[in-house]
Design goal:
Strand order of the largest sheet of chain A: 3-2-11-6-7
Largest sheet of chain A: 5 strands, mixed
CATH superfamily of the largest domain in chain A: Oxidoreductase, molybdopterin-binding domain
Strand content of chain A: 15-25%
Number of domains of chain A: 2
Strand order of the largest sheet of chain B: 2-3
Radius of gyration of chain A: 30 Å
CATH class of the largest domain in chain A: Alpha Beta
Number of helices of chain B: 10
Helix content of chain A: 25-40%
Structural class of chain A: alpha+beta
Shape of chain A: elongated
Oligomer: heterodimer
Radius of gyration of chain B: 24 Å
Order of helices and strands of chain B: EEHHHHHHHHHHE
Order of helices and strands of chain A: HHEHHHEEHEEHEEHEEEE
Shape of chain B: globular
Number of helices of chain A: 8
Strand content of chain B: under 5%
Distance between the termini of chain A: 58 Å
Number of strands of chain B: 3
Chain lengths: 295, 278
């Protein structure tokens, strides 16, 4: 489609907006500036000194924030562990928790999977796995209720009173691994409706008194859960895994399954749920992890 | 003070001011670009070191546990191999941890590594915004855009860099390819890809940090587990970039380094004027 002599067809084909765009993105020649050599020398000295100060500040910041274990490997000894460091790192953690809380919505479901996508789920009990001896005497105690009472329910009460829901969801561990598993159990929300917490309650403390430490001594596990998350339709008090009643490895007879939180919030063998107005203590938050753990 | 004069009005030798009292400079990098460039050093170092500490708690690359040692981590295998084959390391106390002791904050400190990783990750995102602002304010973004001729030109540059040490050894003339842009095609490809990789690192980071609320993001990278693999290999891309980046800035000399600290460069003519024709 040559229309003019001596003009390349592609040039003609170019539309006006295309040329405008090309002009916009074309590299512009940098402006040459005359400068007295002493002036350039001064500017260079000033900025290089500033740069050096910045590098020293970065080194000091690293020495301040890094753990002694890491510094020791570099041959550095820091004799103090400033409280400001904990405050600073916790601040970063809180910001991240606030972001996670802002991202959460009770109406947003987590992805569900098909049975063919189920993967093995390892027993990641923190410490030793308790013996099955606790199961016959097991009860779930509810505290901090609107009625002011303390309620005790056995597994029969829970499974006959509440309808069972099932879901195939991913459990994500803070360590990075994850597993897709088929869970069934009652909705935490149904329990909250049947036994309403006191009106000012915003939190649940979910506890297992049967947990053990690595050497097999009692090490009760407790964890904070905001009620907004407890009310999520996919937050279950699970009784079954992959179609079978929970084994001891996976928290028989009842475990919390909260797929919008990290695995460490999914308490196994729950023995007590206490509702509270103030944020309860949290086992892993006391060990330097986040407290909200929304994923 | 700084006088700005268009090139065609440069004072001639007949001018009152003798020419040797002036030096011609060009502004290479905007202040915000320079700041964010250097801030990336501690931030990326923090991200890599804490990232490998996090990796330790659940390695992406695993195999069936070794029946005698129980080891399942490929990174531990590499540490064991290094300690067995590198002279002077035969008596290293903990070969499986060699990688984690040398390339991370250390093994067994997940909580702390996570806290540092979040701190650095938020800093990295803020710093990225500062970098983009600097590119826009200084107009530097135009020099980073890929061009149609880049593939061929990048190959020419690659050939130049590869041949350069041999040419030096053989004392043969080895000419720098022509170009009349701020960066050569290979530089442009690198300086364009690294910010893109930065965006991908942030995106995969969010995908594995919030795999439920942002599950669509994880799905874009092939799901949660695949997003972890992406995130891991994107880190090695920075390491891969860093090696030639450091070699080239050192071999290119002080003017290049100064332009990233002070902003000015005395190389006012494009490379074409320096190199001779083939």
């Amino acid at each position: 489609m040559t229309t003019k002599k001596n003009s390349h067809p592609s040039e003609v084909a170019k539309s006006a907006p295309m040329k405008k765009l090309e002009r916009l993105i074309a590299e512009q020649p940098s402006q040459k500036i005359q400068m007295a050599p002493t002036r350039l020398h001064q500017l260079t000295r000033r900025d290089v000194l500033l740069f050096g100060a910045g590098a020293l500040a970065a080194l000091a910041g690293g020495g301040f924030l890094l753990p002694q274990d890491t510094l020791s490997r570099l041959g550095v000894r820091r004799d103090m562990d400033p409280p400001a460091k904990e405050w600073f790192l916790n601040k970063a953690l809180r910001i991240d928790d606030d972001v996670a809380e802002a991202l959460y919505s009770v109406n947003r479901s987590v992805p569900t999977y098909t049975k063919s996508q189920i993967t093995p789920l390892k027993n990641n009990y923190n410490g030793a796995t308790p013996g099955a001896g606790y199961i016959p005497g097991w009860n779930l105690t509810l505290d901090g209720l609107a009625s002011g009472l303390s309620i005790s329910l056995d597994i029969g009460n829970l499974t006959t009173r509440f309808s069972s829901h099932e879901q195939i969801t991913r459990l994500v561990c803070v360590e990075g691994w994850s597993a897709v598993a088929w869970w069934s159990g009652l909705r935490f929300d149904d329990l909250l409706r049947a036994y309403p917490p006191m009106s000012q309650a915003k939190w649940a403390r979910v506890e297992s008194s049967v947990n053990l430490d690595a050497s097999g001594n009692p090490d009760p596990y407790f964890m904070s859960l905001d009620l907004a998350t407890a009310r999520h339709p996919q937050t279950l008090l699970a009784t079954h895994l992959n179609g079978h009643p929970l084994t001891v490895d996976h928290g028989a007879p009842l475990r919390l399954l909260v797929p919008v939180k990290l695995g460490l919030k999914n308490v196994k063998a729950v023995t007590r749920i206490s509702y509270a107005a103030e944020e309860p203590r949290d086992y892993w938050a006391e060990r330097g992890y986040s407290r909200y753990d929304g994923i | 003070m700084i006088r700005s004069t268009p090139p065609d009005c440069e004072p001639k030798s007949t001018s009152a001011v003798p020419q040797r009292q002036h030096v011609l400079v060009v502004k290479r990098h905007h202040l915000l670009v320079r700041w964010s460039h250097w801030l990336n050093v501690p931030i990326l170092l923090g991200l890599v070191l804490s990232g490998i500490s996090i990796y330790w708690s659940s390695p992406v690359y695993q195999h069936k546990p070794n029946p005698t040692t129980g080891n399942f981590d490929v990174a531990a295998d590499i540490g064991i191999w290094i300690c067995a084959h590198v002279p002077g390391l035969h008596h290293y106390s903990d070969p499986p941890d060699w990688i984690y002791n040398h390339l991370s904050l250390g093994p067994g400190m997940l909580a702390l590594a996570l806290r540092l990783h979040w701190l650095c990750a938020y800093s990295f995102m803020l710093n990225g915004a500062v970098y983009v602002a600097g590119l826009v304010l200084g107009g530097g973004w135009r020099s980073l855009l890929p061009r149609r001729t880049d593939v061929l030109d990048a190959l020419k540059m690659f050939r130049y860099y590869i041949g350069f040490p041999f040419a030096k050894l053989l004392r043969r003339k080895w000419l720098h390819p022509h170009f009349n842009t701020k960066y050569n095609a290979l530089q442009r490809a690198a300086y364009f890809s690294v910010p893109v990789a930065g965006c991908l690192s942030v995106a995969t980071g969010w995908a594995i940090h919030k795999p439920m609320q942002l599950h669509w993001l994880a799905a874009m990278f092939g799901g949660y587990n695949a997003a972890r693999v992406w995130h891991f290999w994107l880190m090695w891309l920075y390491v891969l970039f860093l090696v030639p980046h450091l070699i080239l800035v050192v071999s290119d000399g002080w003017d290049t380094l100064r332009s990233m600290i002070v902003g000015w460069s005395t190389r006012v003519e494009p490379r074409a004027a320096i190199a001779h024709d083939h």
